[in-house]
Amino acid sequence: MMGGDDGRTASRAGYVCMMGGTTAPEWMRGHDLPGFMMDGDADPATVMGRLFADAPGPRVSPSEAARLGEMVPSGAAADPSGNRLTFTTRAVHLVVLASPSMPAENFRVAGMTNPTVVVPQDAHVSIDVVNADKSMAHGLVVTATGTGSSWMPMMSAAPAFDGAALWFLGESTSAGMHEGALRFTATAPGTYQYLCPVPGDAQEGMAGTFVVANGN
Question: Which CATH number goes with the domain that contains 167?
């Protein structure tokens, strides 16, 4: 889907390649970025955001995005003082706003910034990601801890679980903010990291902790 030189043509082909795993193109799995994504611009995130701005997919209005970013999900307890969101059920559904308060780059979840998210082992996790940025691409991947130190997580941050990656969404436009989804089962207990895999963003602060609590 990404092999051509025309990024806008690629953007209209759909979002299948945005998901993790073997459906992702080679450049998301350790190979060089294609030339059209560099486009002479010093910031790949800006290039990606622009090229995929008109891509198909669900859209959310700014007012609805703001509401979703403050909403505490069903089955979860929010602890703003500890910046922590804890789910007590194995049916986990949360909404994550990506970069809603530029120039700061971060995630907004249940009224908190980059909170620690705790889910039970074997939880069925649904994460709806809304890119609230008007000038950059953003995404989300749940991965091993420590990968956020890389400038290019797309090349190094393998999803911790099958389906636990939405590589990026195009910038918001007058049509609304792009929305995409991750769907996975948190099978292995441990401490992971969620981050934006777009070049440079995790280093700028778009990262948080994702904990799968032992069911025993």
Answer: 2.60.40.420
Count of domains forming the chain: 1
Cα separation, 92 vs 97, in Å, equals 16
Distance CA 118, CA 212 (A): 6
- pLDDT value of residue 19: 53
pLDDT digits (tens, 9 = 90+) for 152-202: 666 667 899 999 999 889 998 899 999 999 999 999 999 999 999 988 888
Burial 18-41 (b: 16+ CB within 10 A, else e): bbbeeebeebbeeeebbebbeeee
pTM, two decimal places: 0.82
Q: Which domain holds residue 153?
A: 7-213
